[in-house]
Task: structure prediction
Amino acid sequence: MHWILGIGLAALMFVILKQWGGLTPEKRKAATWKVALAIFGAILVVLVLTGRVHVLVAGFAALIPLLKRLPMLLRHLPWLNKLYQDYKGGAHQNDRQQGRQQAPIATGQMGIREACEILGVNQGCSREEVVAAHRRLMQKIHPDRGGNDYLAAKVNEAKSVLLARGMS
Result:
């Protein structure tokens, strides 16, 4: 009985390797994933049938390959699409935890008075004061240090407005 099984497996391997040799690299990659998923599925079925894995765990594991298609599925559900876009857009965890939403990036319609208020300088300030105020604020609110993109953009825009308008 064992030798029949051995001959059958040897013949199956021969056919598989012959087919494998005729594939292009792109098709080999796709075939590798399909074979890996088939083996994973077969192992799950065997484990469920022998009672070593609960059916719910196996069902959850069977959904893992569908995660690749999650962005496509989210496009069809508007409220999930918004969550995905917020995640993809880099909304910071602090903002999400506190329920705040980020406003759009600065538009370039800032006046000199507003720019002075943002940087905390007087309207008759020098170029060095603008640069120092910008540096001080950016050290506090830079996105890499836990700040957010909106505030950093506003501070950058304020600096640009003041330097461009000849506030030196």
Notes: Residues 47 and 53 are 6 Å apart (CA to CA). Residues 91-106 have pLDDT under 50 and may be disordered. DSSP finds nine helices and no strands in the chain.
